[in-house]
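Researcher: Re-running this chain for the archive, since the previous output was lost when a drive failed. Same request as before.
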Amino acid sequence: MSKKLKIYTSLLICVIVMIFVNTIWETCPYKYSFSNTTESYSSPDERLEFVQEPDSFATHTKNKNGTVSSTYYPTVSVTVDVIPKGSPDSILMSHSFGQDYKVTMNRVKLEVPCKNFTSEMYHQLPAFILSIIRIIILIWMFCIGIKIICNVRKGNVFITDIANKIETIGKLYIILWFSNLAIEYAIYASRTIYMANYNIVYPIEDDLWLTLKNIAVALAFMVISQVILMGKELKDEQNLTV
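Model: Regenerated structure tokens:
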């Protein structure tokens, strides 16, 4: 067994054990929450309500034939995790057809018109740059995947090039996920995004669970790459024997 295969396999086993422990932790009825919350900011004009779409987002013009022409303006959007402000006893309820429903919003998308994009929002620039890097990594992984598929279709499975490409995909997958975590933290740390009646939070518990799962997937790719290399070595040894 190669040194890399031993390292990757050991790391994969450790991550699987951590996933198992985390799963047990999630099923525990009594546990401490690790979510980080921003300071609770309240604005005098703060409100959360259903309204007609403001003209700053879109304009709707009624034509002579009765149809409506809509013009939508470009927006800047961020997706954040939230928890309600105020007393833990205060919850959002929905009542419909004689039935009460508890409404829980954990993740929301907030949009602001580009023309209203204030200078404070430029603190989101690191998140934007990280998003560009993330797109580049995704394109890179896609191109590597296409090359692997082409080699497999030609019958070239146990070759060093495929093993190296699969290992590269595993490494890029880890970079991709941690860049995603960095984007979330950049949005959280900027303290420039607010939502009425809700606090912005950084989801440590969810990120830990997803991070472990994604690292496990990446390590699985890297283990497969080393198994392919072992297969190639065995094949070469058989050819030499013959």
